């Protein structure tokens, strides 16, 4: 038999099947991560969506709500269930679903309890790894510094900030509005003139704490004992974050419990990791592994067949 490689229809068709399966898998996993769909009457397009576990409104694991009746039912109020980023015409919408939204003191935005920070890494490798003001009591992963800050609070406390090119000036950008849509969703509306429109490359840190007009950066603090107006289950040493729910994967090394962990002996506090276009999140390593196995398998089959044919 000739040493030249001859066209074998059987091997070719097998390779074609394997390639199609690999491409379908790739497409499926990309779709899972980015969830780009079109919904609604205004041509809204979901740029990013991520769900958060139910019932993890307890910080690193043990935080308890304040005991004052204004916080009834002492659960769900700060339980983030989902986060979505949409474009709708010339606006970007940042939506957060909660277990329950109440407004016991009638704040004009329609919610009272939530103090939310959305830190965005929109420009890779550029930005800051600390908060602008003490309050949340966290730091950010050095590989994903943030450069946009959406500060959400009731009573007119919501603001948008953009870190200028020099990396020094954090400039307030006017024009955002915040309100409740449906029963359980807070929507932040950011016009195109205010901030750049979101892309699929962006990464998000979404922090949920309790609102307190007297707290640091209006965060309600967490203490060891807790009380009528403070959360309990933390530490008085101020190493614990004031985050009650964090947008994070359910398990793994970047779970909420892992990220919000603090160590009084080592004097280390919470270091946060974003969601979004992040290489180390679930799908990607699995995808690369699967593709490598498939390509390796095809090569092995081809080599064996080819050498058998030569023998
Ligand atoms: Ca949650
Ligand atoms: Ca969470």
Total domain modules: 2
Largest sheet, if any? Answer: 7 strands, antiparallel
Round the Cα radius of gyration to an integer and report it. Answer: 24 Å
The secondary structure category is alpha+beta
- CATH class of the largest domain, anyone? Mainly Beta
Helical content stands at 10-25%
* Percentage of residues in strands: 25-35%
**CATH architectural label of the largest domain:** Sandwich
Indicate the overall shape. elongated
Number of helices: 3
What fold name goes in the CATH topology slot of the largest domain? Answer: Immunoglobulin-like
- The averaged pLDDT comes out at 89
Number of strands: 15
For the record, give the distance between the C-alpha atoms at the N and C termini, rounded to a whole number.
8 Å
- Catalogue the unreliable spans: 30-38
| Distinct compounds present | calcium ion
Order of helices and strands: HEEEEEEEEEEEEEHEEH
Write a brief caption for the model.
With 311 residues, the protein is of the alpha+beta class. It has 3 helices and 15 strands.
Structure notes:
With 311 residues, the chain is of the alpha+beta class. It folds into 2 domains: 9-29 and 284-310; 36-280, Immunoglobulin-like, CATH 2.60.40.1190. It has 3 helices and 15 strands. It has helices at 9-34, 256-259, 283-310; strands at residues 38-39, 44-51, 80-88, 91-98, 114-121, 138-140, 148-152, 159-163, 170-172, 177-181, 185-191, 203-210, 245-246, 270-272, 275-276. A hairpin with a 2-residue loop joins β3 (80-88) and β4 (91-98). α1 packs antiparallel against α3 (283-310). The radius of gyration is 24 Å and the shape is elongated. 32% of the residues are buried. The site of one calcium ion (CA) has 9 residues, from β13. One calcium ion is lined by residues 52-53, 56, 80, 245-248, 256.
